[in-house]
Write a structure and sequence with these properties.
The chain has 79 residues and is mostly beta strands. The chain has one domain. It has 1 helix and 3 strands, in the order E-E-H-E. The protein has one helix at 28-31, and strands at residues 9-13, 19-23, 41-43. The mean pLDDT is 80. This is Cupin domain-containing protein.
């Protein structure tokens, strides 16, 4: 199985077993709404050391956030 970093490569899931891989580049967020390869649910990891400086709204969907806390902040070494 190939490995990847969820901070730079996101997964999208369709809820029926299909998974698509999406490299994240500077234009990812601006073009994702028109990207037919993105399935229903998006999975990624975001590093953060403080409160987010902005609010978000998702009028056509939900968002689930999971806070991970560890002394080693490199997710490639989490097991």
């Amino acid at each position: 199985m190939p490995t990847f970093d969820l901070e730079t490569t996101y997964l999208s899931l369709d809820g029926q077993g299909r998974v698509a891989v999406h490299p994240v580049d500077p234009g990812f967020w601006e073009t994702m709404d028109g990207n037919p390869a993105i399935l229903t649910n998006l999975v990624g990891v975001y590093a953060g050391g403080a409160d987010w400086p902005h609010w978000e709204m998702h009028p056509e969907g939900d968002e689930i956030l999971v806070l991970l806390e560890a002394h080693d902040h490199d997710p490639r070494r989490w097991r």
